[in-house]
Specification:
305 residues; mainly alpha; 2 strands
Length: 305
């Protein structure tokens, strides 16, 4: 039992180090007693985004987002990701956690932070087109790829198959978040969403994309963290449709999906479901499902008083 607990704790520390480069989300969420948030405890989103496959989805989203030259240029010109390789991943995780599980004031605050951060991100891409992260079409690309990536990761590595109706519900629920960002267009079914991304007319190969993918493939991480990250990266690539793989200069590694399934399964065993999900259920005064949560609630002792 002690050995098992030690292994689980080691996985928690390693995975946590990938996502500990930003603020702690939902610090004061219990203040909003009974607030179901934007999506609510009966949503498909709470279940999908509470699973360990979300880590694969986050990496996949950063890779696929670079297929849009103007989005890639915005990241290359304005992001500090080369100096802070895990900062962008952590900030994405905080945003997703707060918009998914937060009370309405927390959702609104998270969206406001992103809107404010996007305002100065303007420039011209290498193909000579102007870009602005605040434009509805650019916000749509970033949001839609994020939604599609989390769904694809869950479909490939989740604990059980997800019915088509639930996949469509997830996409429809996520349009509520996209609308708050001012994103246009927002497909409402899983198939429409994937088709929209794969056939997007703006997607093209560019140097900013090549640089971003090369960096995401092999970021400068400590060796123990790098090994785990690379397994997740390879798993993420295995879920990207072939046309986008070709554009991104990627290909399925041998056994990447099988290794990914085992890796995510090990993470699920060690981490349990997201503690943010459990915290949101507590805020909503909902019963806690037995056996799926392992980590302690991410709240201070005084919050229990």
């Amino acid at each position: 039992m002690r050995l098992r607990s030690g292994i689980q704790d080691s996985v928690v520390r390693t995975v946590g180090s990938l996502f500990a480069h930003g603020p702690t989300p939902l610090d004061n969420t219990l203040v909003y007693d009974g607030d179901p948030g934007l999506l609510g405890p009966d949503s498909v989103s709470w279940r999908i985004l509470g699973d360990a496959s979300v880590f694969v989805g986050g990496i996949r989203a950063l890779v696929v987002q670079s297929a849009h030259p103007e989005v890639a240029a915005g990241v290359e010109d304005h992001s500090t990701y080369r100096d802070d390789p895990l900062g962008r991943l952590s900030r994405t995780a905080v945003y997703v956690t707060e918009t998914t599980y937060g009370a309405i004031p927390e959702v609104e605050a998270a969206v406001a932070v992103v809107r404010e951060a996007h305002r100065p991100i303007t420039g011209t891409s290498e193909r000579g087109l102007p870009y602005s992260a605040s434009r509805p079409e650019m916000a749509a690309w970033v949001h839609n790829v994020l939604t599609n990536s989390f769904l694809a990761a869950y479909q490939a590595f989740g604990p059980e198959p997800i019915p088509t109706d639930d996949a469509d519900r997830f996409v429809a629920e996520q349009t509520n978040v996209g609308e708050l960002l001012g994103a246009v267009e927002l497909p409402s079914t899983a198939q429409e969403l994937e088709t929209w991304i794969v056939n997007h007319p703006a997607a093209a190969v560019c140097q900013a994309q090549i640089g971003a993918v090369d960096f995401l493939r092999n970021p400068p991480l400590a060796i123990p963290v790098r090994v785990g990250y690379r397994l997740l990266f390879n798993a993420a690539v295995s879920t990207i449709p072939e046309p986008l793989q070709r554009q991104l200069g990627l290909a399925d590694g041998r056994w990447a999906d099988t290794v990914g399934r085992r890796s995510v399964g090990s993470m699920r065993w060690a981490l349990g479901a997201s503690p943010a999900w459990q915290l949101a259920l507590t805020r909503c005064n909902r019963p806690i499902p037995p056996g799926i949560f392992r980590q302690p609630l991410p709240i201070k002792d005084e919050d229990h008083d």
